[in-house]
Design goal:
Elements (H helix, E strand, L loop, with lengths): L1 E6 L7 H11 L4 E4 L15 H11 L6 E6 L9 E3 L3 E5 L3 H4 L4 H17 L21 H8 L4 H12 L8 H15 L12 H4 L3 H14 L3 E8 L2 E10 L5 E9 L7 H16 L5 E6 L5 H10 L2 E4 H10 L4 H26 L3 E4 L7 H14 L4 E3 L9 H11 L2 E5 L5 H12 L4 E5 L14 E3 L3 H20 L1
Parallel strand pairs: 1-2, 1-3, 3-5, 8-9, 9-10, 11-12, 11-13, 13-14, 14-15
Antiparallel strand pairs: 4-5, 6-7, 7-8
The structure holds zinc ion.
Zinc ion (ZN) binds next to helix 6.
């Protein structure tokens, strides 16, 4: 799958660099930057989707499977993007209002979304969850999206089903995972995706360990491998013998190139001369070049005529990692990491949750009841206490409420005046069997039969403080045992 990146005039992203990084981490997806900025419309107007997709398809006649056009102009509906089968028009309008992360992180995030939507296109989250399938109707969710950049369990299951039913391609899933990892690893630390350029695995590799790694991968693929072999007077990096399913023996010479830049056609030419000589002397059957940084376009052309196979390091890694695994296992291997990440996030949400969570209507009348009547009491007992409007959240308020209810030790609900939200949340807490304390000023106005509930009827805030303190002490004592 080849993705072409096209920019509107004035978009401030290094597209060349973006492609270099993406091509380095991706296996089945390749990226190319369209060399010129293309202005599809007058800069002040809204994006006209249909017309501009047509214009874009016209100007980018280069062979590609997908084009992403980035512009500062806005959609009339203010969405980040609209996409068709082969094109995404991506709007960075108002970007700085939604996040302090740089544009390139956004570009990478939406590229991941292109890949994600190929795997599953029907189910999107309406709330912000940090899953790449968030619809982002609330555009500030893009900040959480980039920082969490993961695929949730529900979506992994859907993707797995789609792949098993051959409704979705499996090949781009590893690329999607890698882009999401890159986006979240950098965004979490407030860094640009460009700053991950020096990936740790790159630093720890040098040309000789690179060669060792390639040899090891071939061993894992079942080949008989020898390193630094002299064949008919030629020194070759790796020589390997493999058996085909029909028991035919194939002898291959492998040249390893650990360059920072793409391997060009000169190297392919030189190597093909060596291979031709070895072939005619009957000592090998084929030649392969493995490059750490990929190959230039002319190298590919040369390889077609010379019969040399060109493989990126990623290709061989992927081949070894997925060898002979049934689709389900392959899927698991690539998704295990994501699931671990998700579990870590849930553990973190738990850590951040208050010990006492307070459900009450948003009302200025209740400010004193909360701050003086409840929170101060909780804090004197050394328990953290929050109610929902105190919580800093970027994402969905409801998700945050549910998370807090799940993870809190005790729920206190103020039910003096009937409030559907509070009742709903209370029902949720009750279903989870959470220790509850209902507090009310007026027992006659609550629609509850309070018998059977742990409840407090208070006359004023001082009264509430005293009663709540002794009730909490008793409850926490029991809870701590
Ligand atoms: Zn999801």
């Amino acid at each position: 799958m080849k993705i072409l990146l096209v920019q509107d005039k004035g978009i401030n992203i290094d597209f060349e660099k973006s492609c270099r990084i993406l091509n380095n981490i991706c296996g089945a997806t390749t990226f190319e930057s369209y060399e010129n900025a293309v202005t599809l419309d007058t800069p002040s107007s809204f994006i006209n989707l249909k017309r501009e997709i047509n214009v874009l398809n016209g100007v980018t006649s280069t062979a590609r499977d997908y084009a992403i056009y980035a512009t500062y102009r806005a959609y009339a509906d203010n969405y980040f993007f609209h996409s068709s089968q082969k094109t995404m028009l991506l709007s960075f309008s108002g970007w700085v209002h939604y996040t302090s992360l740089p544009l390139e992180n956004g570009l990478f995030y939406f590229i991941a979304e292109v890949l994600a939507l190929r795997l599953e296109m029907y189910f999107r989250h309406q709330e912000t969850t940090g899953c790449v399938y968030d619809f982002l109707g609330d555009k500030t969710g893009v900040d959480t999206g980039m920082k969490m950049a993961h695929i949730c369990k529900d979506h992994l299951i859907r993707i797995e089903n789609n792949v098993n039913e051959s409704k979705a391609p499996l090949d781009t899933l590893p690329d999607l995972m890698k882009i999401l990892d890159l986006v979240s690893n950098t965004s979490k630390r407030g860094k640009s995706v460009f700053e991950a350029d020096k990936d740790e695995s790159v630093v720890s590799l040098n040309w000789s360990t690179f060669e060792d790694q390639v040899a090891q991968l071939y061993r894992e693929l079942g080949a008989n491998v020898k390193q630094d072999v002299n064949l008919s007077g030629f020194q070759v990096d790796i020589y390997l013998e493999e058996e085909t399913p029909s028991k035919q023996k194939i002898r291959t010479v492998v040249e390893c190139k650990f360059y920072k830049t793409k391997v060009g056609n000169r190297i392919v030419n030189d190597f093909s001369r060596v291979v031709e000589t070895l072939k005619s002397s009957g000592s090998v059957d084929k030649g392969v070049i493995i490059s750490y940084s990929g190959f230039s376009q002319d190298a590919f052309l040369t390889s077609k005529t010379s019969g040399i196979e060109l493989l990126r390091f990623e290709d061989i890694k992927q081949r070894a990692g997925m060898k002979e695994m049934p689709p389900k296992e392959r899927f698991k291997k690539s998704t295990n990491l994501v699931i671990e990440e998700k579990e870590l996030q849930m553990a973190k949400a738990k850590e951040k949750s208050p010990q006492i969570f307070v459900l009450m209507p948003f009302s200025s009348d209740l400010e004193d009841v909360y701050y003086l009547g409840i929170r101060e009491v909780a804090e004197t007992l050394n328990y953290s206490c929050e109610r929902v409007d105190e919580i800093e959240f970027v994402g969905s308020i409801l998700n945050k409420i549910y998370d807090s209810i799940v993870n809190s030790r005790i729920i206190i609900a103020e039910v003096s005046s009937p409030n559907p939200n509070v009742y709903y949340e209370l029902g949720y807490a009750q279903a989870l069997d959470k220790p509850l304390i209902l507090v009310t000023k007026d027992i006659s106005s609550t629609p509850f039969d309070l018998n059977g509930y742990n409840h407090i009827v208070y006359r004023n805030i001082i009264d509430l403080r005293e009663k709540l303190k002794s009730r909490l002490e008793a409850l926490l004592l029991r809870y701590d045992e």
